[in-house]
Amino acid sequence: MKKIAVYPGSFDPITNGHVDIIKRGIRMFDELIVLIAHNPNKKALFTVDERLEMIREVIRACENVRVDSFDGLLVEYVKRTGANVILRGLRALSDFEYEFQLALINRRLNRDVETVFLMSGFKWFYTSSKIINEAASLGGSVKGLVPEIVNLKLLQKYSRDGGK
Ligand code: ADP
């Protein structure tokens, strides 16, 4: 059986912590789908199209990885695509409780799907989209914490002339 994993998240925007999980995930599964799980009630910095474009650029050279977006129930998407694993990354203890809840509800909703966790890479332990956005919005450099295309997009977004 082909092992297909879905790596869901907001990716608003994708960081090097996410990229680390993707690269390690590729080695474990036959196919990996990075899924922008779009929540219309959650205020996002980047539109889904902008996030898709950035992720596409980041995974361009990677085989067996693709990106998609979805705004429904995650286990439905997983079933529809024939995937059998949900991949998530774990950072500090603070991630643990929420991730545990999410894994349990998803397992209750579909017992055929397992959630697999990868520990954050040491370098990315404190990297989150939220912190990146906050630092960038105040003019701080986030170079090296995000892929270069994301760094450029953030600079555009927060530059005083709106990147014109
Ligand atoms: P959410 O939409 O739940 O806030 P994100 O889009 O930030 O999630 O991240 C998606 C997944 O990637 C989550 O499992 C999250 O824990 C994980 N993740 C985010 N940043 C990192 C990081 N720096 N290292 C490892 N995993 C991470």
Radius of gyration: 16 Å
How do the strands line up in the largest sheet? 3-2-1-4-5
What binds here, in terms of ligands, is: adenosine-5'-diphosphate
H/E series, N to C?
EHEHEHEHEHH
Q: CATH H-level name... which superfamily?
A: HUPs
Structural commentary:
It is a single chain. The chain has 164 residues and is α/β, with parallel strands linked by helices. It has a single domain (4-125), classed as HUPs (Rossmann fold, 3-Layer(aba) Sandwich). 41% of the residues lie in helices and 19% in strands. The chain has six helices and five strands; from the N terminus they run E-H-E-H-E-H-E-H-E-H-H. It has a five-stranded parallel β-sheet with strand order 3-2-1-4-5, with helices on both faces. 29% of the residues are buried. The mean pLDDT is 94. The protein binds adenosine-5'-diphosphate.
